[in-house]
Write a structure and sequence with these properties.
Layout: E1 10-13, H1 17-28, E2 33-37, E3 48-51, H2 53-62, H3 64-73, E4 85-91, E5 105-108, E6 115-118, H4 119-127, H5 132-138, E7 139-141, E8 145-150, E9 156-160, E10 165-168, E11 170-173, H6 180-186, H7 189-192, E12 195-207, H8 208-215, H9 217-221, E13 224-228, E14 231-238, E15 243-251, E16 263-265, H10 268-274, H11 280-286, E17 294-300, E18 310-311, E19 314-316, H12 319-322, H13 331-345, H14 357-386, H15 397-412, H16 416-435
Helix pairs in contact: 1-4, 1-13, 2-3, 2-13, 3-4, 13-14, 13-16, 14-15, 14-16
Length: about 425
């Protein structure tokens, strides 16, 4: 007769969307969890973020309340005729005025359930799912991780910069691009750090009324992508269509001047100089960027993908495991996929206690690593296509569309239920082997 499984507790490092979603998912499954965040409060940078259909399916699996939080802030194309259009794609160098400019092609997402959110608004909704007593008990601010060590006999000890320590049965690092948990797992300082992709971006939120004046209603109220030489721009509505999110990307191919800082100050003159080869439509948008803009360096793990997302009872998820450039609009979505798979593995019926957590993390790693590392590489390729940097494809719009469609289909058409079942089967096999069954 089998006994009841012994409980375990999880420490989550980092309170971005990945860490907070994981914390909420574990609480829903009655798994004791504590979230440690180095900042003094919840913070999320950036403006717009997209969720592909598979990611939205993963949100439902994580928790109905998390899915409801997404719906509360989700924005889709305003025109019903554009609901399946992921992007209308335009020649950003064209001199034709935006309202009269025809798209070169459309990237269509026939699968329902995708949309974009304002990152900070979504985080606010997630925080609101925690009761006040849960926030006090489960969320610990001002906790910058210095070290994580596994203890003899099981368990993990976490050392913080303020001199305090905490213990848990296992740790999941969701601490983003600059992940300290990744450094601890990898060991090699160079391989543990994200590298500069050779591209940077400027971001801006534009009131929708001003965006319509600049682009016309069709292009302002719906998602648009503006191609060009060594650069491209995205525009899409957020905050229920009251704002337009602009992200303008530039390829420079140089070294990033300060590896300790992901953003650097820029000037309007520098931005305009970066896009001199673009036409009046893109330059009108760029002119709306505020007078003290930042240049956001785009860093990823393309140069040295991790050989494993786990080591013993320490695991990585989200950007900590597979930081990517944003050119597929799928980095955050794949992080949510991570959470759904990991949360379901942690309540699998084959678990007997904390001693099985290493097998959980190994099954998670095998389930997630190939797909997420493909994204890191493919995202770089997508940007090169949009910027006409491939010598063979160049401005062959039919060739660009064919390849982008194939790549996006791999992202969009994932069956999360099947992914989770495969991960569970892997876990069951591992545990049976360990137990000699």
């Amino acid at each position: 007769m089998s006994s009841e499984p012994r409980p375990f507790n999880i420490a989550v490092i980092g309170s971005g969307i990945t860490g907070l979603t994981l914390t909420l998912s574990l609480l829903r499954r009655s798994i004791p969890v504590t979230l440690y965040e180095q900042s003094s409060s919840f913070k999320e940078i950036g403006a717009g973020v997209g969720f592909h259909p598979g990611a939205v399916s993963a949100l439902r699996i994580c928790s109905p309340s998390i899915y409801s939080a997404f719906l509360a802030v989700c924005t889709v194309n305003a025109w019903p005729s554009k609901r399946n259009v992921w992007f209308d794609v335009f020649d950003g160098t064209s001199a034709v005025d935006a309202p009269d400019l025809a798209s070169e092609f459309q990237i269509l997402c026939e699968r329902e359930g995708w949309g974009g959110v304002h990152r900070a608004r979504f985080l606010d909704e997630l925080v609101g799912l925690l009761a006040d007593d849960e926030k006090a008990e489960r969320i610990k601010f001002g906790k910058r991780v210095e070290g994580i060590e596994e203890e003899e006999g099981g368990g993990v000890r976490i050392r913080f910069a303020d001199g305090t320590e905490a213990r848990a049965d296992a740790v999941v690092g969701c601490d983003g691009i600059k992940s300290r948990t990744r450094e601890i797992i990898v060991g090699d300082e160079k391989k543990a750090k994200c590298g500069y992709s050779g591209k940077y971006a400027y971001r801006c939120l534009i009131p929708m009324a001003e965006a319509i004046e600049a682009l016309g209603e069709e292009k302002a109220a719906n998602t648009s992508l503006w191609m060009g030489p060594n650069g491209h721009a995205l525009t899409f509505p957020v905050s229920h269509g009251t704002m337009l999110n602009l992200v303008a990307f530039k390829t420079d191919g140089k070294d990033w001047p300060d590896e300790k800082r992901l953003t650097l100050p820029a000037t309007k003159e520098e931005i305009l100089r970066d896009f001199t080869e673009f036409g009046p439509n893109v330059n009108r948008l760029i002119g709306m960027i505020n007078d003290k803009p930042d240049r956001w360096g785009l860093f990823d793990l393309a140069a040295h993908p991790l050989s494993s997302y786990c080591k013993g009872r320490i695991c990585l998820a989200g950007d900590a495991a597979h930081a990517s450039t944003p050119h597929h609009g799928a980095g955050a979505g794949m992080s949510i996929e991570d959470v759904a798979v990991l949360a379901e593995l942690l309540v699998d019926g084959s678990l007997r206690g904390p001693e099985d957590l290493e097998a959980v993390f190994s099954a998670f790693d095998e389930s997630r690593r190939a797909r997420t590392q493909w994204l890191v590489q493919s995202s770089r390729r997508a940007a090169d296509l949009y910027e006409w940097r491939d010598a063979e494809v160049g401005r062959d719009y039919g060739g660009i569309l064919k390849e982008i469609n194939a790549r996006q289909a791999y992202i969009w058409n994932v069956d999360m239920e099947a992914e989770i079942e495969a991960a569970r089967a892997n876990l069951t096999k591992r545990l049976a082997a360990e137990r000699g069954e």
